[in-house]
Amino acid sequence: MIQENELITLILCLVALFFAISNYVKLKSLPGLKIFITSFTLFTMGWFFTVIEGIIFEEVFNIIEHVCYICSSLTMFIWAIVFFKKRGEN
Amino acid sequence: MNLIGVLDFFVFSITLASFSAILIGWRNQFSITTRLSLIAVLFITSFYYLSNFLEWSGISDIFVIVEDYIAILAPLAWFFFIYTFLQKNSEKNLRENQKNVEEAYRYTEFYKDLFTHDIRNILQNILLANNYIEQFNNDQDKLEKLPEICSLVKEQILRGENLISNVTKLSEIRQSPVAIQTVDLKNILEKTVENIKKLYDHRNFVVQIPDKKLLVKANDLLENIVENILVNAVMHNNNEPIEVWIKASKYKLNQTNYIKIEFIDNGIGISDDRKKEIFITREEEEHKFRTGLGLSLIKKVVEYYNGKIWMEDRIKGDYSKGSNFILLIPEG
Fold first, then answer.
1. Is A12 in contact with B72 (Cβ distance < 8 A)?
2. Domains of chain B, residue spans
């Protein structure tokens, strides 16, 4: 069953992701931009599978959702390291 | 603890590590609003993952009630972080563009001033010479002055040529600075003096050059500096012969080794009031005393070499006996 709050969060994630991708060129001065966008995409995918698990294959999509979260947090950690490295170079 | 509980434990730990790393490590990379929004992103996601971990590992479901509301804030925080970063970036770009436009405007005014003043001045001198020649009408007395008039015309043409060359050099320095390397000062002095003697073959021009080899950190533009100083020494000199003594020696100032180069001439000199203003570039102070582009160019190039330039009287206290241009160029 689809929960309203999960759907709203997913829509908000998609809006934010669209906003980030549509401003990709302007965001290029952000250190490690690709990693940052990847992290957010994985976070959004996590929410996508959260919604999907309410419709079909609950257990499978639940695991995929949490795998997406762990990938998202890992890329976020890599971004933090890249961020410091680039800042050091500057 | 089940598989998802373990996964969520790692998710929470890694996010917390990123959060801590960013909180501990950064300094003023972003504006305060951008930093706060990034902290919000990491705080909200950390909280969400902590709640997930506690729930799925069966430890506690204390945060479940607020988890859904907190989760909605996560994409909003991401959005706000990206938005504030973009906004601050746009402001920075706008400031840079404004600075570039202002600089371009100053240069436009500078070139306009250059053409309306110097080129007009040169053309007027040539026109005057032409008018004088037209009045000759085979008058033998006046015809005797013809070589002098021709020499004046030639001098004005050389002045114009020099001006155009200097404008080009200034523009080159501004757009793409030329690399600094080790160059032999003696070679540059010999080459430039030879060129100046050819240009002013109608004047009795005597130059003494130091005979020792000295290396300086400069480039080909040093030739232009020497050329400009020598041209000034010839143009502003009513004596015969025109004498220039070039001295070079090692000099130490503020722990830096320089080569001190002195150009001492027997020209008309520069009064104390004008001494302060001769190196002022037109783009800095366009209404101040006009010196021709030569000294502006010299100043810019010397500063580019991390060197220094100033001038003194040849004979202390009596400027009318000639000038001494002193250059400090870092030793090579």
1. yes
2. 3-98, 180-330
Residue A80 lies in a domain: yes
Give B165-209 pLDDT, tens digit per residue: 777 777 777 776 667 889 999 988 988 888 888 777 777 888 888
Enumerate the β-bridge partners of residue B245: B208, B264
Number of domains, chain A: 1
Q: Tell which residue, B271, B274, B252, B248, has the closest CA to residue B321.
A: B271
ipTM score here? 0.88
Mutate to test the interface with B, among A4, A9, A26, A85 (most CBs of B within 10 A): A9
Would you identify the CATH topology of the domain B180-330?
Answer: Heat Shock Protein 90 (3.30.565)
User: Tens of pLDDT along B25-36?
Assistant: 665 566 777 778
pTM of the predicted structure, to 2 decimals: 0.58
Measured distance CA(B125)–CA(B174) in Å, rounded: 31
A8 touches chain B (CB under 8 A): yes
- Would A81 be classed as within a structural domain? yes
Q: Residue A19: its chain B contacts at CB < 8 A?
A: 79, 82-83
Q: Is residue A70 part of a domain?
A: yes
Structural domain including A46 reads 4-11+32-89
Handedness of CA B98, B103, B109, B111 (dihedral sign): negative
* Chain B interface mutation, best of A69, A81, A83, A85, highest count of B Cβ atoms under 10 Å: A69
Q: Is residue A45 within 8 angstroms of chain B, CB to CB? A: no
